[in-house]
Amino acid sequence: MAVRLFNDRLISVGGAAKMAGESMADMLTRLSRLGVPVVDYDESSLVHELSAATAWIKPVLLKK
Question: Is residue 20 left, alpha or beta, with left meaning phi > 0 and alpha meaning psi from -120 to 50?
Fold first, then answer.
């Protein structure tokens, strides 16, 4: 039921985990195994998120 509610966007992944009595990591694993997407970005949001991640990780990688 928790997976269905999450898939229908009625509850968050955290809510689904709580409902199922699982950790968020276990719920994310379950959703992944069931092929349920856990992120749903439009193109501009995805570009923004990837740019932010790149800006954050680049200094860490350069230190190595």
Answer: alpha
Q: How many residues does the chain have?
A: 64
Which pTM value belongs to this model?
Answer: 0.67
Q: What is the mean pLDDT of the chain?
A: 93
What's the Cα-to-Cα distance from 6 to each of 26, 31, 34, 44, 62, rounded to whole Å? Answer: 14, 9, 12, 24, 38
Count the domains in the chain. 1
Structural domain that includes position 21:
2-63
Whether pLDDT at 64 is above 70: no
